[in-house]
Amino acid sequence: MNTIKTFFLMMVLSAMLLLIGGAVGGQVGIIIALVFAIVMNFGAYWFSDRIALSMTKSHPITEHEDPELYGIVREQAELAGLPMPAVYEIDTDSPNAFATGRSPNHAAVAVTTGIRRILNREELSAVLAHEMAHVGNRDTLIMGVVATIAGAISMLAFMAQIAAIFGSFGGSSDDDDRGGNIIGLLIIAIVMPIAAALVRAAVSRTREFQADATGAHNCGNPLALASALQKLERGSEARPMKVAEGASHLFIVNPLKGANLANLFSTHPPTAERVQRLTSMDIRPKF
């Protein structure tokens, strides 16, 4: 069901992109929108992991530097049937973690120094199982594509706004038609970015639920993941992370929790609902 919902929402985003392209430039606008999306998705496919790691100020660590963390990551990768990802660390007291990469063979997981201070081994293992689930479910690629399409919609909406502004100047033999076109462009310029943000948030929430379920099955300890989520939410509220909003959807809990983002635009499901789903799962621990 989560996969079907994700596919449907991505189709909605794609339709919105074509609609706004057509509104701005007709058939030519649709072609331009398609080319624009292809180019941006090409860039997202090859460079999204580098961008994410750079935006979050993550730095690589070696197995010699942190053998315990490497051991946990390797354990969860094996349980998920995935290759060992690169391991990164973020120097911040805010407790959190995320995964990135275009495929399981080009994946990376990053944890904050703060997460190591508040979670025990079982909880950290469950968190990393969740992150490896994102890798295995190709969520890291899906969210990169979704973010790219949403970004393309926002940029085309800005172009529509410019077209509406400049279209309001100058004379025309048909003022009514011109006025109608301007109003239509303004509506698109205002409504489409909001709608794209809502769809993007909905996709992100769906993938978080799926990663919770997959990670809990892989590590065999949904209660540890539920406990970790509760600790991480409290820790994030007490110490929000200084990170760009464009990267907030990557993390297992919202690093900008202190910003009180509206629920409709939140990229993360309510922690209480995630915990309720996890605690209702009938899975025996594998360790």
Total helical segments: 8
Q: Please list the strands of the largest sheet in the order they lie side by side.
A: 1-2-4-3
CA-based shape: elongated
Spell the H/E element sequence.
HEHEEEHHHHHH
Strand content: 5-15%
Number of strands: 4
- First-to-last CA distance: 29 Å
- Biggest pleated sheet: 4 strands, mixed
* Class derived from helix and strand content: alpha+beta
The low-pLDDT segments are: none
Overall residue-averaged pLDDT value: 84
What is the subunit organization of this protein? single chain
Helical content (DSSP H or I, runs of 4+) = 55-70%
The gyration radius over C-alpha positions equals 21 Å
Describe it for me?
Helix 2 crosses helix 4. It is built from eight helices and four strands; from the N terminus they run H-E-H-E-E-E-H-H-H-H-H-H. Strands 1-2-4-3 form a four-stranded mixed sheet, sandwiched between helices. It has helices at 2-55, 67-80, 113-118, 121-136, 139-167, 175-219, 222-238, 271-279; strands spanning 59-60, 86-90, 97-101, 107-112. It is elongated. By secondary structure, the chain is α+β, with helices and mostly antiparallel strands. Helix content is 66%, strand content 6%.
